[in-house]
Design a protein that fits this description.
CATH class of the largest domain: Alpha Beta
Radius of gyration: 53 Å
CATH superfamily of the largest domain: PAS domain
Number of strands: 12
Shape: rod-shaped
Order of helices and strands: HHEEHEEEHHHEHEEHEEHHHEE
Number of domains: 3
Helix content: 55-70%
Number of helices: 11
Structural class: alpha+beta
Strand order of the largest sheet: 2-1-5-4-3
Largest sheet: 5 strands, antiparallel
CATH architecture of the largest domain: 2-Layer Sandwich
CATH topology of the largest domain: Beta-Lactamase
Strand content: 15-25%
Bound molecules: adenosine-5'-diphosphate
Length: 473
Amino acid sequence: MKRLSLRIEVFLLVFIVGVLPAMLITSGVLSLYASRSVRSDVTNITNEATLLANQIVTSGYLSDTTQESMNTRFMSIGNAYDGRVMVIDANLKVVKDTYGADEGRTIVWSSVLNSLSGVSGSYYDQENSCITVTVPITTYTEEDEQEVVGVLLLTKSTDYITQNTIFFKDVVLEIMLIIGVASSVLGIIMARRFTEPLHRISKSIEDVQNGVVDEVSVKDFSETREISKKFNGFANQMRAVDDSRQEFVSNVSHELKTPLTSMKVLADSLNGMEDAPVELYKEFMQDIGNEIDRETKIINDLLSLVKLDKSGAALNISPVNVNDLMEVLLKRLKPIAEKQKVELVLESFRPVTAEVDEVKFSLAIMNLVENGIKYNEEGGYVHVSVNSDHQYLFIRVKDSGMGIPEDSLEHIFDRFYRVDKSHSREIGGTGLGLAITKNCILMHHGEIKVHSILGQGTTFDVRVPLSYIEKEA
Ligand code: ADP
């Protein structure tokens, strides 16, 4: 369904709220006026007719219809009512009709017949604008019993009700016109008042997009303030993402350039030397080979990170015996540890099976253990322990190495962050290992914490749910 604009909806709402009740009230009041007028007329005419019926009896009019005083009275009532007075005797014969039309005729109107049986009646003929009232003319017999000797029929024109109604309608129409105009003006003002801040928000968002302003600030209503706040939060988030992407790209370029620069320097210096000894060639070529290895490692780490960044789509979850896995991983790292003269110990508190992606989980733990060995000293140790409760798998990697300065702790999971660049480079670090580890752990909905004392050692604590639960995107 096509939606109306908010401005039109607000305008229509105000207009309808203004005009509709006025229309309903007016038509209600007019019909109330008409029915009340008819009711009060009926009461008055019935009273008058009852009085007149009594006079007909006391004056003996039915036996002498030529009585001047009564006839004059009938005429004057007829004139006053702009209607008709009829006197009908017990034989349904019209003995007096102020219109003269039906005098002498017999009429069998149901209202007359009703009244002849002793009941008063009234009828409002809206079409012809008149009220007709019939009352019985009653006397008392010698036995003191009531006897109907005729019927008195009075009609009264209700033209005045129609005329008043028409007059009121005209007045009301004028008032409605004023209300309509006022509602329209109010509607336009209200519509503008409500939609104008929204237009400003939309314009501000456009300005933020085009870099004209930094934030949206429309404080007219608490709702627009809230939208502004939410949008600014979102915009800042996007900026942060953009900044970190740019930083990442510049870091990547820098990191990839460094080995190339070294190689270029090595090659240039060899080229620049006349009759360089073979030993020097060999040494420099060895260095160039190391730089190529380094470049390859950086590229491999970057590829791992990029793959992980595809938001966990490729997790290959299966139940894994963590104790066995750890044993295999440590066995793989044993030669490096031995080379560094670092003791590698695995401690399994209990058998643990967890639902993980074996390859990615191994990558995460390998990086931690490798760091424990790399940033250690001769004669040091790396202790790896495996434990669990009913919900989580816990892995602790504790080393007796050089430790991490406190102010670096919050950065070590950042891409390319290294506490000591030259030292890390020397031992083949890329600064991507912990970023990869953290990503892997987060993909498993786990948590990683670090605790370190400079000069004493570092402990990484990993916690991963035993059962992998797919989270909704
Ligand atoms: P790198 O490839 O340089 O080791 P990582 O991301 O694995 O990169 O680690 C980032 C930095 O954190 C390292 O350069 C190092 O300075 C520091 N670090 C990581 N693990 C340890 C550890 N076990 N002991 C001391 N420092 C560590």
